[in-house]
């Protein structure tokens, strides 16, 4: 979208060129695939939000285990000790505790006053108008610590929008935070209290994630007989996912992005994008792709080799190196003016501008607009799987819910996933 | 000759019964729609009454499906391209009816239609929603949205299963008994006892899949109406669904008459 402001991205770098391997062979395969698009229209999926043209022509009779789990109870659990909230299908979670122990002084320069504060956040993730759920969300409060003066808690938020199948997104949900955590542990050990080189750490983590996803893709045919993409096992490597990851520390927000999911900061009511979508027609991305020997072909929008509508992603081995897994990393200092952070898949951003999203979120945070109460006179059954600590009346949950509903009301044709993190000092 | 004309007469009578079953259902829906609309305007605060009404509508749907399931035992194929529906309706049929997920899609498409206005207004204040007399589908709560999403994913999976079964059944036509009987028969369309038996078998498979599809349609709607939505939301959904169904039928009829299809 036009409002993306690249200038805000403070720590970015185009990925180093990867060496093209056996390009001719790859191209041949692409030709074959392209034929299949023409012929394989029987799938009947026409949603314009599709990231990838329908590669799977055959009817899909079964879903993967992952998808079953996705389809299962979306219980946003909050386990204090494990500090992990893994969102499966849709959950709205608000963490309200842990703030009372500390008296906070609003005027203080941040952070250092509130080392143990859990962030408040809301998550909402729905299949929407798509028939497959390929969005995944991961939230891990206090997932890691950074050694320093004093030790600071780091909170993890990630949105992954899969394409081709959901399994790379599922892998990202399960592994990305672990890989980043490991990376940070190494950094802590090696560099001690020196400032973390976030860009390098995130790049390493994303590359590891990419390797894992590809390795897993290759093994998927053997292990996951029931994965729908397995029906055409060579297509397994045609599966990938976006990843937008935000690490919130008391004084900083670190965003690493790969693909066209997006992180936006609302600061004093103004929308500040913390990531810039990796679209194949973004001039620097187009250059990068062409320099690597790839092409961007317009076929229902710009697509790498006419296939993928984003220029970076985890997975998608057969589009490497044109499609890169290197994240762009943004580090911003938190200020007292910060309202909230919004991470979402393009199911939201396709139909809701950054400004509108921030405006809606702020309305919720300030209590000017409410999502419907859980109980409204008539008996609404409390659904099973409503986890402890889950409150649907929290402003952040209101915000994520309202944004999701707004996306649906505006006829978003894709899965919609929204995470809203409260960054206000005074709440 | 005599037996053939009797058979024709029976077939016509059968078609009449099918058409009658459908027309009764349409008439029922017209009556239900009136009642639903009345309830929304006068009893929107009476949850008990609305709940009753929603339950009654679900029961009507169940009655219709049961009636046609009985009829389908005699002639399932007729329900896959019913002559009593318009060609527009028929071209969008999924196993003899609408896709079960359509109910969920309808919730998405009509909910939040007032959201824009609320947001544009900067969020009308008020700690309760007394400002609006009805808690409409735009007011789907977080837990409801989650339940709808779960139901959606579950229903899609069931649909895919049935679709896949349907696909197999369609492909089986080109397989063992029928294809080989055709191959070895003297002339195309030669009658035989075995052909009749095999066709009857296919018809019964169709009847089974139709019944299961109907069950999924009913169960999805019932879960939404009785399990997830508030009574008022449920009644509103039923209004929109009924209206849509009746409208598509009327629009289809107009289209057919313009095209001279009677």
What does the radius of gyration of chain B come to?
Answer: 23 Å
CATH superfamily of chain A: PPM-type phosphatase domain
Instruction: Please give the alpha-carbon distance between the first and last residues of chain B.
Output: 30 Å
- Let me know the number of strands of chain A: 15
What series of H and E elements makes up the topology of chain A?
HHEEEEHHEEEEEHEEEEEHHHE
Show unreliable segments of chain A: 1-116, 374-393
Mean pLDDT across every amino acid position of chain A: 73
Task: Specify the number of helices of chain B.
Answer: 9
CATH topology of chain A: Phosphatase 2c, domain 1
Mean pLDDT of chain B: 87
Coarse structural class of chain B:
mainly alpha
How is the secondary structure organized here?
The complex is a heterodimer of chains A (427) and B (262).
Chain A lengths: L22 H17 L25 H7 L13 E3 L33 E6 L8 E12 L5 E12 L3 H25 L6 H26 L16 E2 L1 E6 L3 E7 L3 E6 L2 E4 L9 H9 L4 E3 L3 E3 L9 E2 L12 E6 L4 E7 L1 H4 L4 H12 L29 H15 L6 E7 L5
Helix pairs in contact in A: 3-4, 7-8
Chain B lengths: L1 H41 L4 H29 L11 H5 L10 H9 L4 H6 L21 H31 L3 H9 L8 H36 L2 H28 L4
Helix pairs in contact in B: 1-2, 1-9, 2-8, 2-9, 6-8
